[in-house]
Amino acid sequence: MKFIDELRDMYDIRTLCKAVKLHHSVYYYHKQNKENSYKKANEELDKKIIEEFEKSKKRYGSPKITKVLNKQGIKVSQKRVARRMKVLGLRSITVKKFNHNGNKKVDDKNKENLLEQNFNAEKPSEKWVGDITYIYTKETGWTYLAIVMDLFDLKIIGWSYGKNMTSELVISAFEKAKAARGVTEGMIFHSDLGSQYTSKEYEKMLLENNVKHSYSKKGYPYDNASMESFNAILKKEEVNVNTYTTFKEAKLAIFEFSDRYR
């Protein structure tokens, strides 16, 4: 098999198989099995990486997650964990990592926590909070849910579900919240320092709506405790007890679950 793989770019597969007295169908069968096995192994590893990432409240990067997995008996290199985290779009909030918008690092010097763990609001659209959570589907792999909550009544007023974790995803969730409840001048929107929320596009949108952006401090997920609480309920009562085959199936389930919090 290795002989054929090494020369397949220079010679026809059937010719190579004939040279080693191997029927070409056998070669393709083993090739497909190998690819399926590798894909399945990645899917299982991705699940464990996501699990440990969320357990750490998004604080663990590839070195710590690798260490945790190795302690659990899962032998994997940091290089592979880092590669899978990049594919999944996972970035630790305690370190500076590359984002989807290019090799720009998040500068948090002027990013204040205006909320300061005061989750009380006296009126609608005074304080909103947002976050992204991860949902696995058999057909698509990892998918992403961006949510907006109004702290006045802890209602989910906007959400967007997609196959990629981009600034467009969180912008869509905000726009839906805006259409549902409206924004007030000087309103606070609180999020973590993820690259989607700190992107130029997102910051520009908030500025155009006269909304003040508040940020969780690095390593302090409880700065967004209300949103973390909802995500925990979502995972416990819906996501972790169900298996989604398709993107559409997961989207419908999320809609029905989130509708209870509208």
UniProtKB/TrEMBL annotation:
GO terms for biological process: DNA integration. InterPro entries: HTH-like_dom (IPR025948), Integrase_cat-core (IPR001584), RNaseH-like_sf (IPR012337), RNaseH_sf (IPR036397), Transpos_IS3 (IPR048020), Transposase_IS3/IS150/IS904 (IPR050900). GO terms for molecular function: nucleic acid binding. Residues 120-262 form the Integrase catalytic domain. SUPFAM superfamilies: Ribonuclease H-like. Involved in the transposition of the insertion sequence. PANTHER family: TRANSPOSASE FOR INSERTION SEQUENCE ELEMENT IS904, TRANSPOSASE INSF FOR INSERTION SEQUENCE IS3B-RELATED. This is Integrase catalytic domain-containing protein.
